[in-house]
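User: I'm designing a mutation panel for Class I SAM-dependent methyltransferase and want to avoid disrupting the core. Could you give me a predicted structure to guide residue selection? Please restate the sequence first so the numbering is unambiguous.

Assistant: Good idea. Sequence first, for numbering, then the predicted structure tokens:
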Amino acid sequence: MNIWDEIAYRYESWFETPLGKRADRAERNALLSLLEDFEGRYALEVGIGTGHFGCMLARRFDLVGLDLSAGMLRIARERCGDDLLGLVRGDALRLPFKDGIFDLVYAITVLEFLGDPRKAIGEMFRVTKKGGGVLLGVLNKRSSWAKKKKPGTIYEKAHYFELGELLPLLRSRGRTVWTSAVFFPPKEILSRFSVILEPLGRLLRRDRGALLFFLTIKGR
């Protein structure tokens, strides 16, 4: 059993806390803002985990979810049910799909835990159609949340990214837009002001959100 199998049953619990709910709302809003033009298409989530984002997006796309953890896939199946087109156990570094078959391929907080993130990105582009989209959501090294890594958790050894690490690479593969989310610090009392802090953060400190989102249109 790997660490992801071990934590699968409790992975969603943080999102039920007041702080987690507010962070989740901000992340989902940012994610959906980038996906307005992709509704109803054939999509793949790399690292679907427990289906935290997948259950929502499966109502918008014909969605296939991939994960290496059997425990995570089991919970995703329970949570998302028939909304998903299918679930596949597989490796993000060797996607078990033919070239250019998906309209949209996305991964959210997955690259941080891989030994070769560039290879995973290459695989995502490989299975995406020309003119299709590749979306990445990554933890931001420059956010206040990055300074609060808790020892002994899965985030302790995670690689947090800076904007400049990914933006040039993605722009070399197509037209790329980006945004970020969760500008309030990891304190419940301050998160209560998220309605004010989120738009201010996007306006004044867009590179400091806890989660960076990139959308690249392949080959354009």
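For picking mutation sites, this is relevant: The two ends are 42 Å apart (CA to CA). Residues 129 and 192 are 41 Å apart (CA to CA).
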